[in-house]
Specification:
Length: 148
């Protein structure tokens, strides 16, 4: 008798789904506005490497996160393009991957071991991604400051 493969849950399926990149800084500004308009939709904010959130963030937390992550990305990804934010939809996002500018590796294209995003915004309750790395102290302090 052959055992059935374990079913993937909705988060894993979404995480492995199709994503499109937000390529320019002006596109990112427009995209953040779309997300801000949906701030109360029930976003889970997950810093990969930190404990998985068990409940969605409030609209004020989502808005604060967008403001602060935007500042961080502009300050630390000193390119004339964005290219490190990916979403399942630019007009009705349900899942957003934000890559850490200091841990990009091969975030686009093909790799046998692509880096995990630094942060995930999801309308689906997240699951741990198996990344047991410790966040660098500056990232952990930045993340914790958002919630203090």
């Amino acid at each position: 008798m052959q055992l059935a493969a374990p079913q993937e849950n909705a988060f894993q399926t979404a995480f492995r789904g199709y994503f499109t990149g937000v390529l320019s800084w002006s596109q990112l500004d427009e995209f953040w506005e779309v997300v801000r308009q949906r701030a109360s939709a029930g976003w889970y904010l997950y810093a990969v490497g930190e404990p998985v959130p068990t409940h969605p963030s409030g609209a004020d937390q989502v808005t604060a996160f967008i403001r602060e992550i935007d500042v961080l990305l502009h300050a630390e990804h000193r390119e004339d393009y964005c290219g490190i934010v990916y979403t399942d939809s630019k007009t009705e996002p349900r899942f957003i991957k934000i890559f850490d500018p200091n841990n990009l590796g091969v975030s686009c294209g093909y790799s046998d071991n692509p880096p995990l995003p630094g942060w995930i915004m999801s309308l689906i309750p997240p699951q741990e991604l198996g990344d047991r790395r410790l966040l660098p102290g500056n990232r952990r302090r930045w993340w914790q400051k958002l919630w203090s």
